[in-house]
Amino acid sequence: MIRLRLILILSFLGILTYCSVATQSATSKVKDLLNQQFTELESITADTLFKLARHGNATDLKKAFINTRLAYKKLEWFTEYYAPGASRLLNGPPLPEIEIEETKAFEPGGLQVIEEYIFPFEEANRPHLMREIKAFQSKLKRARSVLEDTEFTDAHILDACKLQIFRINALGITGFDTPLSKTGLIEAKASLNAMLSIVRIFGDNDKIENLIVAAGRYIDKNPDFDSFNRMEFLTRFSNPLTVELKRWEKQLNVEPLKTELAIYTRSETLFDPNLFNPNFFAENSEASYTSQKALLGKQLFSDPVLSGSVRSCQSCHKPELAFTDGLAKSPAIIPGTFVKRNAPTLYYAGLQQAQFYDMRAPSLENQAMDVIANKDEMHASVEDAAKRLNSHQEYRKKFKSAFPTMEAEIKPRYVMIALATYLRSLAPFNSRFDKYMRGDSTQMNAKEVAGFNLFMGKGKCGSCHFMPLFNGTAPPAFTNTEAEVLGVPATPNGRLIDADQGRYAHNKIDELKFSFKTPTVRNVGKTAPYMHNGAFSTLEEVMEFYNNGGGAGLGFELENQTLSTDKLNLSKKEQEAIIAFLNTLTDM
């Protein structure tokens, strides 16, 4: 009997050990695979790309560069998730990195900078190209050192895979990081195949495998970047793929992640109605979302009690105009005068990392304080607004309900938090486009779908107005909101550049002259006139401006223009299709 019990105990311990080793084996296999991929990338970079940069011809150099990028895309899911700082150095935008606090701009580097030296290649640039490749190799070592120190879990690996597919959807197939080589489609296939290698480590899933294989075949059959049907790719392959990945995660009994960042880990596609976590964008835990705070903020938004005059927030942000005022420049508090910019839409304003056209406010709370204090807008103060509110018994009750820890008086910060919470609630995601992406194919017609494909492809709109917010907040992390230098004219005739220098007014860095935050184009059908100064009255005028290369197309000499100066060569029919798509982004 004792011997039998001993055998049973040893058998049980053996099972536990086997399970532990099996789990450990899955994560260690992932690390082994990544080590192999890093070795492959290092080898291609050193043995092929660098050698050709020294002596090779343009054709071979381009091929080597493409192979280097394809090798990088196999491990991009890791670098973006576990080493975002290193990832930016490896494949960040070919623009100076601005450090606002240090008032400095740092030169860019990585694959996108290398691309500019190769497409097209000029013999005189060999030394610069070799220097950039050497720097890339150094950054690659830094990323590999992160791998050595990384402790993997099943949940984090599968989450990283899902986010990589989101990245492919929003950035990869738009050509965001391959504007010159236009290799985004074959890179999407390479990245999806890398996801398949990870999935196979965890077990067999025929549906995931079939979807990835079919997506790769679809790319092979439709290799042209400009004509690629991104809508079909998303609805037939990408969306079903991430839905199945989340279902399989549950089947594997993977413990869900406890930490919620910008988007909820439970999300299945990039178009889920409740994709975003509003608390990620709040200043602190006290500003976390509750319906009581949002309702209170809604009431304050339309109440002139904040200004102590006839003005309220709603005076310049009218709900029927998607929370704009329909003017080129908003009226100042003194009758007959105007501020230098117009009132931007407040829809989706809470889902970005900076406020105002010049991005001077880091949060909606700060924005509320700034607007109330601005001598041309409300010419009041949050402190005085709090005093006025304290004299209203009904408001004190509502503030106490919204902020249970509140003592006797309404504090100024409660006013700012309530307003900010309401604004964060203005993210309905219920446009015809949203409904189409969730499976209702009756919501968009053929012209509108064609417009979406042009917006995300040939028109290059989606490489600045990132899906699904269609603003400058970059997916899938949504931790950075971008600005652009477009070269906006003072008037539609385009003879003079607008004198407003944007971000440069608050941050004296040359690269920021005429730089403005990239706004959302959701509800753009209701928010005319367009640009910070209302220079364009119609979307047709806006399309013509972009089609001709922005300010450069108008003859402005802007060394720091970030918008491509190349003409888009969109026909009138194609421009009309893009506008038709934009009108599907109007919330119902």
Summed up:
The protein is mainly alpha-helical and 588 residues long. Helices cover 48% and strands 2% of the residues.
CATH architecture classification of the largest domain: Orthogonal Bundle
Q: Structural class per helix/strand content?
A: mainly alpha
CATH superfamily of the largest domain: Cytochrome c-like domain
The CATH class of the largest domain is Mainly Alpha
The whole-angstrom Rg is 26 Å
Helix content: 40-55%
- Average the pLDDT over all residues and give the rounded result: 93
List the keywords.
588 residues, mainly alpha, Cytochrome Bc1 Complex, Chain D, domain 2, 48% helix, globular, disordered N terminus, peroxidase, oxidoreductase, heme
Plain-language structure description:
By secondary structure, the chain is mainly α. The protein has four domains: 20-151; 153-258; 278-424, Cytochrome Bc1 Complex, Chain D, domain 2 (Orthogonal Bundle); 436-585, Orthogonal Bundle (Cytochrome Bc1 Complex, Chain D, domain 2), CATH 1.10.760.10. The chain is built from 18 helices and four strands. The chain has helices at residues 2-55, 58-82, 84-91, 111-118, 126-149, 154-170, 184-202, 206-221, 230-251, 291-301, 364-373, 382-390, 393-402, 412-424, 432-437, 446-456, 539-547, 572-582; strands at residues 97-99, 104-106, 483-485, 515-517. A two-stranded antiparallel sheet has the order 1-2. The radius of gyration is 26 Å and the shape is globular.
